[in-house]
Amino acid sequence: MSPLDAQDLQNTGLLSPPSPGGSSGGGSRRLHKRRLNRSSDEEHYNIPLDVPMQSPAGSHAFQEIPEFLISREALVHVGFSDHRAAFLWNEWSMYMAGMPQHDIDDLQVDFISFILNRLDQQVNTWSDTNSEWRSCLNSYGMSDEFQAAIMDPNFKYLRTSESCHYWTKDTVEMRFAGLQDIQRASRLREASLRQRSTQHGSSGAGPSHSRSGSAAERDDSSARGHRRNRTSSSIQRLGAPGVQLRTMGTASALAAANAPGCTMLFKGIDNARIHGLFSESGNLQDITVLQSSPPGDFSGNQSRYYFSPDYKVAEYYAAYAKRRNSVSAVCIVSLAIPNAALEQMQSTELVRIYWPSEEWKETVWLSRRRQLLPSRLAMVSQATVVIGTIAKRPDEAYHRIQSFNEITENYILKADRLNPSVQFVFHYRRGKDFLEQHAAQTMRVTPFVNSDLTAWLQANGSFL
Question: Which intervals of the chain are annotated as region Disordered (predicted)?
């Protein structure tokens, strides 16, 4: 938390003082859930801001977070057991003892890279057997809470589409990015406090006096909650340009979105990973944050942009992300591409390959093994857009088979458990240009909140 913001939040009962830290010198705080990140005020709008921290309702209204982003407590937050976190923190401390000084942002990059590198050195499994996954997660030193999130039976089908190492690394990375999002929201609020202090002068006005209204009004909890909603809440939303404000309804309303003459595409992702997608004015700024690193289904050595025309695919991934990281914001990115733009593309620009064709099997098999495609499949690697079936198994599974002819129906994703799911895959350069030209104005980010997760579980329980 930024110092001035922390002081203001403590003065208004929205943040606890730091608890005593351990050997890391860290500790933790309890922060009101509506102040976690730049879209949490909307997600938790039903939690009053004036809930006493020590009341029975306070256990639901406040979230424990680490005092410092680089600490043993942060390792516990991202999912490691107390014992494993202490071990990793000791390793990090020894590593840093021999390193030159860095600025704080560089340290954050070094810290998460150091931790993820430790996971790369461990065992792995992609078996359908739960006990093998539990054994793998235990070898990583993951906490019971983390394991319960990964192993939730409601998501077994999607979980087994990748390996234990993949989901563990993805979840740790996502949770750490969520902490960085909390930090960004705090910095944003602090900048606003400083601006208001400058505008109103510094004659006796500390951070907690920056709220408007008489003394009598400040004593009224209802008025106080309303003012906080007008100030810090609106500041947080301004820090999340492009995010659709939604106080009623569910993200599933996107499934019924109608864009006449256009093809709608969707992608489920956590908010922290799309930081910078939009400018402060709400315009598309950096679409590269939506890139997925290789290997992918249709490219083994280049990044690609992956979307699905099936809302259920994006919803499925968003739901699992929310289940694995309830603290952070999760969203569904949507965009509309004019059908005319797709219809005008040459056959070399837009390629379609589907299961069970040999072209699809060989492309996926080679790409997932990080091998170059042969000349007869060059149209796939060179196309601006490739439309095709989504593959399901982890990269390691493709390394284990000797030929693409061994790929069976078990290697394709069926989000509805019945029909093969389809994806639109855009080239890292030509596809980027195409998206910026034809979809920049229609791209939206819609929050996927806890109520959306609950609705998804209720609607899909019979399929699991």
Answer: 1-52, 189-241
In this structure, the answer to whether residues 167 and 265 fall within a common structural domain is: no
Helix H segments across 239-357? Answer: 311-324, 339-343
What count of residues does the chain have?
464
- And the tokens for 18? 């730091």
* Within-domain flag for 378: yes
- Residue among 415, 422, 351, 414 at smallest CA distance from 381: 351
190 found inside a domain = no
Domain extent, residue 299, equals 251-461
Residue 403 — left, alpha, or beta (φ > 0 → left; ψ -120 to 50 → alpha)? beta
**Token code pair at residue 238:** 């301004």
Considering the entire predicted model, what is its pTM?
0.89
pLDDT in tens, 181-226: 999 999 999 999 999 888 766 544 444 433 333 333 334 444 444 4
Domain boundary, last residue among 126, 155, 179: 179
Q: Which of 274, 269, 111 is nearest to 181 (CA)?
A: 274
Q: pLDDT for 306-352, tens place per residue? A: 999 999 999 999 999 999 998 989 999 999 999 999 999 999 999 99
> How far apart (Å, rounded) are the C-alpha atoms in residues 225 and 423?
45
Amino acid letter at 137?
L
Chain mean position to CA 358 = 34
Say how far apart CA 268 and CA 196 lie, in whole Å: 37
- 445 found inside a domain: yes
H helices, E strands: number in the chain:
20, 10
Rounded distance between C-alpha atoms, residue 14 and residue 29, angstroms: 10
- 165 and 260 in a single domain? The answer is no
Domain boundary among 179, 198, 225: 179
